[in-house]
Amino acid sequence: MSRLQWKSLRSRVERTRHQYEPGYRSLDQKEWLKMHKTVFDKILSGDLPADRVYEDDSVFAFRDINPQAPVHVLVIPKTKFARFTEISSRPAEETGRFFSAVSKVATFLNLDSSGYRVVINNGRDGGQAVEYFHAHILAGRKLTWPPG
Ligand code: 5GP
């Protein structure tokens, strides 16, 4: 996908999202978000477009609309839960499959030799904006530490 195509896809998604989810960024609207579909639910169901990079039975991976590195891919489980906090009460097999898939996506993107970072934001202070559990894969430049 060219830069121009990606820009146009991105502005289309932004317009659609604001139409359906005017309060999507506010964590104060947690209850509202729980009751309604998040943008990632809509991407998974095909109601919102996304630049898909990988998919299997249990995960869906697509490029972040607002990339923070040359490679910025989001990986979501097809079985939805909201936060990393919930991992401890999920079946170990399911979470094992998820993290194994994240590693597979990175390999698929040819990132193994150059390296990459996997980030999971959890809750308000963790900077989680979308209440659908997801992992970020960031790569393509030397990432700094500590994160902001
Ligand atoms: P969080 O802050 O919740 O960990 O990350 C949410 C990520 O989802 C952000 O990096 C944001 O740019 C990305 N995002 C939000 N809405 C969309 C969308 O509609 N499409 C795509 N591809 N990414 C999105």
Describe what this molecule looks like in 3D.
There is one protein chain. The protein is α+β, with helices and mostly antiparallel strands and 148 residues long. It has two domains: 1-36, no CATH class; 39-139, HIT family, subunit A (2-Layer Sandwich), CATH 3.30.428. Helices cover 35% and strands 16% of the residues. It has a five-stranded antiparallel β-sheet with strand order 1-2-3-5-4, covered by helices on one side. The model is unreliable at 19-24 and 26-30 (pLDDT under 50). Bound molecules: guanosine-5'-monophosphate (5GP). Guanosine-5'-monophosphate is lined by residues 13, 17, 39, 48, 50, 62-66, 74, 121, 127-130.
Biggest sheet record:
5 strands, antiparallel
What is the name of the CATH class of the largest domain? Alpha Beta
**CATH T-level topology of the largest domain:** HIT family, subunit A
Small-molecule binders: guanosine-5'-monophosphate
CATH superfamily of the largest domain: HIT-like
Order of helices and strands: HHHEEEHEHE
Enumerate how many helices there are, as a single number. 5
By DSSP, the count of extended strands is 5
CA radius of gyration: 15 Å
So what's the overall shape?
A: globular
Stretches with pLDDT under 50, minimum 5 residues: 19-24, 26-30
